[in-house]
Amino acid sequence: MSGTFFIFVTGGVVSSLGKGIISSSIGKLLQSSGYRVTIQKFDPYINIDPGTLNPYEHGECYVTEDGMETDLDLGHYERFTGIRTTRRNSMTTGKIYQAVIDKERRGDYLGKTIQVVPHITDEIKRRIMANASEGEFDFIITEIGGTIGDIESAPFMEAIRQLRWELSGRTLSIHLTYIPYLRAAGELKTKPTQHSVKELQGMGIQPDILVLRTEKHLERGLLDKVASFCNVAKDCVIQSEDLPSIYEVPLNMHRQGLDARILEKFGLKQEPEHLQALAVWEDFVRKEKSLTDSVTVGLVGKYDLQDAYKSIRESLHIAGVHAGRKVEIRFVNSETFTPDALAGVDGIVICPGFGRRGIQGKIDAVRYAREHDLPCFGICLGMQMMVIEFARDVLGWADADSTEMNPKTAHNVIDLMEEQKKITAMGGTMRLGTYGCDLSEGSRVRNIYGCAHITERHRHRYEFNNACRADFEAAGMRCTGLNTENDLVEIVEIPTLRWFIGTQFHPEYATTVLQPHPLFLDFVKTL
Ligand code: GLN
């Protein structure tokens, strides 16, 4: 196959329809058909990246291996396809404007008047195409954030319209919309979808395929009606009903022929043998549906919101499926924590975070776990709280703290390190992306990973203070993962406890559906 095909996924009527899941499902299906795929997200907001966005508004910030802070949808893309994304896969209006303004300042435009069309739209097009430059992919799926009709998404729509014209025959437009059910009337309504498609058509984009989100099953007659009103072939109107698990969505889309229609549109054949890859996915879903044994994990954090710790939740769930256990997740609010909140919990995860809020609850939860030998998994800030708790209670350093919380403390067991300042000297202050880590001989983590060297993704500023390492080791907290380059402590564990491991990195970003992360898998198996 020569040349790349482009699929654009837009959404209409309302937000939160699950465009990310549909894009991921399309990626999975095309990948299963033997094609090389990547999925990228273009967000119309003006922030440069989602790194500083409030988790209450945007959920978790996901991090790519090359250190880009991105929208959580990239987590879905990676978990579904197992394909690693890069900084090119995440774009915002802010970044696009920044690039155009930088060029203007450098004089690249030779005194021309800079306008949304063509300068902003050209920059959008350039970035949509960026992943195609090396011929690595057969398909590039581009998901556009927001909803059709939003003022800020207009330049993206214009860029797509132009690309469809320029690359005729190599692009496909998939529009995800909503069919509401009006209980009082007892009817499903197609009008919002018709309006949404009209809006898209008004921008010069005729969708090729419609995916209708619905809470109730849609009969053929309704799908045909939508097809005829929206100028779309009947077999290209597909429904996406609510399902018990997001991982069933690719199978549901496949049953309705979404992948077959996409391939047909591009004149490509569905290779039957490639579909055997889907059997492995089916197997996962079958296992997921048949879980009987369940365990409860307390998620100790400050954001009581499904999306705030998305990758951790999915990592626990996926590890659970592979371990044959349904993981029930109980959110434990660290701001109001008392040990009663852990009644009936089989293990806890101390979540990542920034700032002081809810810190004491995390320390108290660690103390309870350490004293009662409750399996405990600390991630990033969670690991830092394990270290502080140990210093205060076992080493007897009552004022032990992180300089993030208490810059003046004498026992700054978590501190900004010189090495880290060097790494982040390029403007940003965070250690972001993948770093190598050596696992010490005889440690629990080396046994779990089954190897001596790993790479994992980071997103933090503060580090274990190496000046205190000997004190911790002597008292029973071992530093069993050290940064390959500079000896920063990446993992701590207390080997005498059932499962007490803290990681400075974020293992949750690396989980995929077919490959659970070894730490999550081992943690869930221990419960
Ligand atoms: N706030 C801590 C730091 O900056 C931890 C960050 C995190 O949990 N991602 O080091």
Order of the strands making up the biggest sheet? 13-12-14-15-23-22-21-18-19
In percent terms, what proportion of residues is strand? 15-25%
| Domain unit count | 2
The oligomeric status of these chains comes to single chain
* Ligands, deduplicated: glutamine
What radius of gyration results from the CA coordinates?
25 Å
CATH topology (fold) name of the largest domain: Rossmann fold
Termini gap: 48 Å
Approximate shape: globular
CATH architecture label name of the largest domain = 3-Layer(aba) Sandwich
Describe this structure in words.
By secondary structure, this protein is α/β, with parallel strands linked by helices. It folds into two domains: 5-286, 3-Layer(aba) Sandwich (Rossmann fold), CATH 3.40.50.300; 291-526, Rossmann fold (3-Layer(aba) Sandwich). 36% of the residues lie in helices and 22% in strands. It has 18 helices and 23 strands. The strands form five sheets. Strands 13-12-14-15-23-22-21-18-19 form a nine-stranded mixed beta sheet, sandwiched between helices. A seven-stranded parallel beta sheet has the order 5-2-6-1-7-10-11, sandwiched between helices. α1 (19-32) runs parallel beside α3 (73-81) and α12 (310-323) packs across α18 (518-526). The protein is globular. It starts with a strand and ends with a helix. It binds glutamine. Glutamine binds at residues 352-354, 380-381, 404, 459-462.
